[in-house]
Amino acid sequence: MADPERLSRIEEVDTPYQTDVDSTDGTTLQSSQDATGDENGQSTPATGRSKARHAILVASMFMTLFLPALDQTIVSTALPNIMVSLGAATSSNSGYTWVGSAYALAQAVVMPFFGQASEVFGRKWTFLAAISIFMAGSCLCGASQDVAMLIASRAVQGMGAGGITGLVIILIGDLVGTRRRGKYQGFIGATWAVASALGPVLSGVLADHVSWRWCFLINLPICLACLVVNLLFLNISRPTKSFRQSAKSLDYLGIFCVSLATVMLLLSFEWASIGISWGSPRIVLCLIISVCALATFIFAETRAARPVISLRFFTHPTRIGAYASAFFHSIGYMGLNYYLPIYFQAIKGESAAQSGVSMLPIVLMFGIVSTGAGYLITATKRYQEIIWGSSVLATVGCGLLIMLNETTPTAVVVVLLLVAGIGVAPNFNSLLIPIHASLDDTFDNSAIAMSASAYSFIRTIGLSLGISISGLVCFDGLRDLDAGTTSGLSISQLIRSLDSMDGADKARTVRVFDAAMRHVFIQVTVMMGIGMLASFLIRRHVLGEKVRSDHKIVMVARDQDRDGQKERSQVDERGCAGRT
């Protein structure tokens, strides 16, 4: 029997469709007759169209997700060209830093807001708003005339990216139950991993052969297509409350405090990564504000009627382990993703395009293994062994990368990248499955979406910190270089300067890079190891088939449903007339 509390929540959504609280997929149904087909069991045209709409909608979600993942890393290789084109000083590290940091900061800050907004205002229009913001930011980035405008535009783009990233995961939760969600989470992980890894390669190609502006403008036609598809196909139940009533139910204090704590934390690490002392007043002040904001956030969430991130999400060993493992996995992954190309370019002497080819083994593993792990979880209905095994292999694989140096044979490099890729790939999004599986009936339906939003938020903070922490380690290793020749140079500029160095200076610089990269790989291994230990807290839970969501995605066209309702009404009227 359905829970009365759940039924009361379902009554709050305004949709002309029957909402099936026991549905095993996230769709609303016209009627049992319409949904099942004819008496011979054959699929009706409506069912066929539903499957087509499902495929188109899911493909559009993954394509939409591909863009924020791509833009997380796409500027890295093109930054020297961008700075020269916009007239920035060649020795300015702040510009290099903030073009990437503005995007990451904005992306992390808005995730809790978009997660709660989708519950309050409805999924469809919140998702379309996120796509539109990302599209506007991409357009502004491509039209930027100076560094300040580019940084501001990247912040706008990051706001849209944060909404897209969190909402795609939430929408998948609306679409299928936990038991079938593994393969979808695998696709999400593969999409994110491959896009992030391809970003630096595509950046270099566009900057060298077309224009750096196309690193951003390439998003526009894809965004427009995704916007149209979701506008037409994402038919979803929506709240009946007015905009004013919905706005009043947002957790403004919680959103503000968690956003402030995030900004101050990421700012302190960002400044430290460009050489500012941890004891400097600005970093100390940022850390103090971050701690105070976090304490206020925790206090506020204990009293909020509708908390943006419920503290109950962190009261079970499974959820604690999964969130912690995702956080440290993200730090390690981003260090690996950002600094492996530097190994190939600075130590192996490869160009940006060549380093992209050298990265193919790990990129392919990211895509193939992430997808395969998702299907395996769906088929076996077991996630513990896959998460534990991949965490151990990720730690071992990243540890083996410490052996890489200037003389490592290509075949050995390929094998090591394959091992690391197989270990890192499965846990991109599979860690969300035990989080959802551990949410029992004491949690309402909105907890599925809000726990997914918290997961995306924590992963994004990890990704942002991963860049800064690995940068700290790398720059610390590069201090052995001659300060007179390298002062103020970014890593990209330093790599470019290798070609103009004489033999002795070049050999010494490569050796210093070699030592610095070894330290980076050690740091990545430590992060993966901590994530592995955290994953052992994850317990086994039954993977339910039912979708727990008050936002049902409609897979049958509205006009068709209205025609069906009209026809059934006419039949009922004729039946009543016959009986009288």
TrEMBL record:
One of its GO terms (cellular component) is plasma membrane. Keywords: Membrane, Transmembrane, Transmembrane helix. Residues 16-47 have a biased composition (Polar residues). Residues 1-49, 559-580 are annotated as: Disordered. Residues 1-12 have a biased composition (Basic and acidic residues). The chain crosses the membrane at residues 55-75, 95-114, 126-145, 151-172, 184-205, 211-233, 253-276, 282-300, 320-340, 360-379, 386-404, 410-433, 454-473, 520-538. PROSITE patterns: MFS. It is a multi-pass membrane protein. Gene3D superfamilies: MFS general substrate transporter like domains, Multidrug resistance protein D. Residues 57-543 form the Major facilitator superfamily (MFS) profile domain. One of its GO terms (molecular function) is transmembrane transporter activity. It is found in: Membrane. InterPro entries: MFS, MFS_dom, MFS_trans_sf. Pfam families: MFS_1. Belongs to the major facilitator superfamily. TCR/Tet family. This is Major facilitator superfamily (MFS) profile domain-containing protein. It comes from Cytospora chrysosperma (Cytospora canker fungus).
